[in-house]
Predict the 3D structure of the following.
Amino acid sequence: MPQITYVLPDGREETVDVPTGQSVMDGSVRNNLPGIVAECGGSCSCATCHVFVDPEAASLFDEPIDEEVDLVEFLEGACDRSRLSCQLIVSDACAGVRVVVPATNG
Ligand code: FES
């Protein structure tokens, strides 16, 4: 099962198993990690699951859909590494991916 590392808002790092087919958001919520609020439960409408992903890691996930692009555009602190973690579906290729969770999710 792929492991994903979350750099938490306080700087700590947590590495957890995330089953393939689940999202990076799911991996955080199911392990009670702080920082990813996921108010809408993953339906790409709240943007409280914002994370930063390096370009090499971002290429392992699907491109953002229009709804995600629109939400990220208005997020505080967003940059070209911003993604909504509920839209990042984990595959075996994602083993070892590291995401940074901002302190501004909720
Ligand atoms: S959980 Fe709401 S947009 Fe990702």
Q: What stands out?
A: The mean pLDDT is 97. The first strand starts at residue 3 and ends at 7. The chain is about 20% helix and 20% strand. Residues 3-100 form a domain with the Ubiquitin-like (UB roll) fold (CATH 3.10.20.30).
